[in-house]
Design a protein that fits this description.
Layout: H1 2-25, E1 30-36, H2 49-62, E2 69-74, E3 90-94, H3 112-121, E4 125-129, H4 140-147, E5 149-150, E6 165-172, E7 174-175, E8 190-197, E9 200-201, E10 208-214, E11 223-230, E12 236-240, H5 252-265, E13 283-288, H6 298-309, E14 315-320, E15 336-339, H7 351-362, E16 366-370, H8 389-395, E17 406-407, E18 411-417, E19 431-435, E20 438-439, E21 451-454, E22 461-470, E23 473-478, H9 484-489, H10 491-501, H11 530-539
Parallel strand pairs: 1-2, 1-3, 3-4, 4-12, 13-14, 13-15, 15-16, 16-23
Antiparallel strand pairs: 5-9, 6-8, 7-10, 10-11, 11-12, 17-20, 18-19, 18-21, 21-22, 22-23
Length: about 550
C-alpha cells in the first residue's frame, strides 16, 4: 500500500514538473485589438471600416495555422473601456483620417493620442490602414517614431498642400524585402486600388523596411505603399495605404499580407507560409418584400434586416419590392432568399413564380422566413384565391392562419434558447426583445424549436425559431420580427439563421447589433427604405 502511494506521488510530481515546464516553454498569448472608425461617407463597398474589422477578427479567430493569438473588435473609433489597450500587443486602426479637421481622425479626439502614446512606450505594436495613415504634421515626430511614416497633407504646394499623393488604378504590386515575415506566403498581386504614395518617412531611417511597392500612373519610380518598422523599444509598426475597396479582401495575397502584418506587429510568430484564412466568394442574399399587413412597416423592417444580415461581412444583400421576381431566373444567382412579404389583401403568386421558387429551393437555394411571411398565400387571408397549399404546409412548416392563430400584444418578453444542438444557436445566450409573440401557428410537418418564449395568453412556451430542409434547400423560420426594433433585438439569432440557410460557416462572434442603429445609407446602395428615399429626394 505504501509502495503504491509512493509511486502515485512520484507520478504526480513528474506530471507537475512536466506541466510547469510546458507552461514555461509555451509562448504567451498575444492580444490583438482591432478598432473600426465610424462610417462617415464614401460609396457603399468603399471605406468599410466596420465590416473590415469584423472580417479580420473572424479570419484571425478561425485561421487553421494560427495559435496563441486572441482578438478583440471595437467600434465607433475607440474602445468603450480604453483600459483594454493596456495589455494589447498590437492596436489596429481602420478609420477616417485627418485632413480638413484633425478630429476626423479618431486618434485626435480627447486624450486618445496620449493613451496611445502610453501603449507605444511599453512596446505595443501599431497598424494604420488606408485613410488612418493621414496624420497632422504637428504630431509627425510621434507618429513617425511609432509607425515609420505617414500621409503628409500639410507641407506640399498650394492649393491642397499635400506633400503625399493619391491615385486610383488597377496595377501590379511589387514586394520589398522577401525575407520579411510579413511577406511569408505572399506573392505580388494585381488589384484595383486607391493607393496613397509619396509617404513622409525620415530620411534613411534604418528601422523602416518597404514591404509593398507600386508605380502609380504617370510616375517614374516605385513608391512604398506598405512598410514595416522595428522600433528600438521592441515595438513594431505597419502602415498600409491600400484598403479603399472592400472587395480586395477576396484577393488571397492582399488578405494574407494584412493578416501577417497584424500577427507580426503583435510580436507573434508568422506561420512559415503565412496566416491561412480561406474566404469563399461573397454570399449573395435577396430580401423579397414590398408589402405586408397594414400594421407592419415592411420598409423599416427590411432596412433593419439588411443591416443585420450585412453584419456578416461575407454577405452582400440586395432587395426587391416586386414579389413576382420569384418568377425570374435571376433568383438562382442568389444563395439566400429572405421573405419579408405577406400578400394579405393582394393577389397571390403567379404559377410561374411558384414553380421557379420551388425549383430554386429543391436545387439547394436557402430561404429565411421572417415573422408574418409565414402567413402569406393562404386561404384565410382577405385576398380570395391566393391560397398556395405547398407554401403553407411544406415550405412553411408553421403558418399563421388568420381565423385561428394569434399573438400576444406587442411588448417585451424573453426569448430562451433550447437545448437543441444546432449551429444557429450554438453559444447564443437568451435575450430580451420587444415584439409580437405568435402562438397557435399551424402545420403538420415536424419542427425542433431552437428558441421559445412563454405567451401571456396561452401560458405555454411557444416556438420562436426552427430550421429544416426542403428538397436540397435549407429553410430558417422565425416568427420574431414585427418591427425594425424587433429585428435588431433578435439580430444575432436572425443573422445566424440566415447564415445557416445560405450554407455558410458560422461567424466566429456576434457583432454588436447597436452598430445598425445609426446606419448611414450611402451612394451606391442598391436599395433604400422609403423614409430615407424621401429624405434623399428632398435634399436634391
Amino acid at each position: 500500500m505504501l509502495l503504491r502511494a509512493m509511486v502515485l506521488l512520484s507520478c504526480l510530481a513528474v506530471m507537475t514538473v512536466s506541466a510547469q515546464s510546458a507552461s514555461a516553454e509555451a509562448p504567451a498569448t498575444k492580444k490583438v485589438v482591432l478598432i473600426a472608425g465610424p462610417i462617415t461617407g464614401h460609396p457603399k463597398h468603399a471605406h468599410e471600416y466596420e465590416k473590415s474589422v469584423i472580417l479580420l477578427k473572424h479570419l484571425l479567430d478561425t485561421s487553421p495555422n494560427l495559435s496563441g493569438v486572441t482578438v478583440e473588435a471595437h467600434f465607433r473609433g475607440w474602445p468603450d473601456n480604453p483600459a483594454t489597450l493596456d495589455d494589447a500587443d498590437t492596436i489596429v486602426l481602420i478609420s477616417d483620417g485627418a485632413d480638413r479637421r484633425e478630429q476626423d481622425h479618431p486618434l485626435y479626439v480627447g486624450d486618445r493620442l496620449e493613451t496611445l502614446e502610453r501603449q507605444m512606450r511599453r512596446g505595443c505594436g501599431l497598424v494604420l490602414f488606408h485613410w488612418s495613415t493621414f496624420n497632422p504634421g504637428r504630431f509627425h515626430d510621434r507618429v513617425t517614431e511609432w509607425l515609420g511614416g505617414y500621409f503628409d497633407y500639410e507641407t506640399g504646394p498650394e492649393p491642397r498642400k499635400w506633400y503625399s499623393a493619391i491615385q486610383t488604378w488597377e496595377g501590379l504590386t511589387k514586394l520589398g524585402d522577401a525575407d520579411h515575415p510579413i511577406l511569408r506566403g505572399v506573392s505580388p498581386f494585381r488589384v484595383q486600388e486607391e493607393f496613397y504614395y509619396r509617404i513622409r518617412f525620415r530620411e534613411n531611417d534604418p528601422r523602416v523596411t518597404p514591404i509593398v511597392l507600386t508605380q502609380p500612373p504617370g510616375e517614374t519610380q516605385d513608391y512604398a505603399v506598405g512598410w514595416a518598422v522595428q522600433r528600438e523599444d521592441g515595438g513594431r509598426g505597419f502602415g498600409f495605404t491600400g484598403g479603399h475597396f472592400y472587395r480586395n479582401w477576396w484577393s488571397d495575397d492582399f488578405r494574407r499580407l494584412i493578416l501577417n502584418a497584424i500577427v507580426w506587429t503583435a510580436g507573434a510568430d508568422v506561420p512559415e507560409r503565412g496566416v491561412r484564412a480561406e474566404l469563399a466568394e461573397p454570399t449573395k442574399a435577396l430580401i423579397v418584400t414590398g408589402y405586408q399587413h397594414p400594421a407592419h412597416d415592411w420598409s423599416a423592417v427590411t432596412a433593419a434586416l439588411l443591416q443585420v444580415l450585412e453584419q456578416d461581412p461575407r454577405m452582400f444583400v440586395d432587395v426587391t419590392e416586386n414579389v413576382e421576381d420569384l418568377a425570374s431566373q435571376s433568383i438562382h444567382d442568389y444563395d439566400l432568399l429572405v421573405m419579408n412579404y405577406n400578400n394579405w389583401d393582394r393577389p397571390g403568386l403567379s404559377e410561374a413564380a411558384k414553380a421557379n421558387f420551388v425549383e430554386y429551393l429543391k436545387r439547394g437555394g436557402g430561404l429565411a422566413l421572417i415573422h408574418f411571411a409565414n402567413g402569406a398565400f393562404n386561404k384565410t387571408l382577405p385576398s380570395d384565391g391566393s391560397d398556395w397549399p405547398e407554401y403553407r404546409t411544406r415550405i412553411v412548416r408553421r403558418a399563421w392562419m388568420h381565423d385561428r392563430s394569434g399573438h400576444d400584444k406587442f411588448g417585451p418578453f424573453r426569448v430562451d434558447i433550447t437545448s437543441a444542438e444546432h449551429p444557429i444557436t450554438a453559444g447564443l445566450a437568451p435575450f430580451q426583445t420587444l415584439d409580437e409573440l405568435y402562438y397557435r401557428q399551424e402545420g403538420d410537418q415536424p419542427i425542433e424549436p431552437l428558441a421559445t418564449a412563454v405567451s401571456q395568453v396561452t401560458g405555454q412556451a411557444e416556438p420562436m425559431a426552427w430550421a429544416y430542409n426542403y428538397g436540397e434547400g435549407r429553410v430558417f423560420q422565425t416568427v420574431l420580427g414585427h418591427s425594425d426594433q424587433s429585428i435588431r433585438l433578435a439580430g444575432a439569432l436572425i443573422r445566424r439563421g440566415c447564415t445557416w440557410a445560405a450554407d455558410m460557416t458560422p461567424l466566429s462572434f456576434d457583432p454588436p447589433v447597436e452598430l445598425t442603429i445609426d446606419y448611414l445609407w450611402r451612394d451606391g446602395a442598391q436599395w433604400r427604405p422609403q423614409a430615407e428615399e424621401k429624405e434623399t429626394q428632398k435634399a436634391r
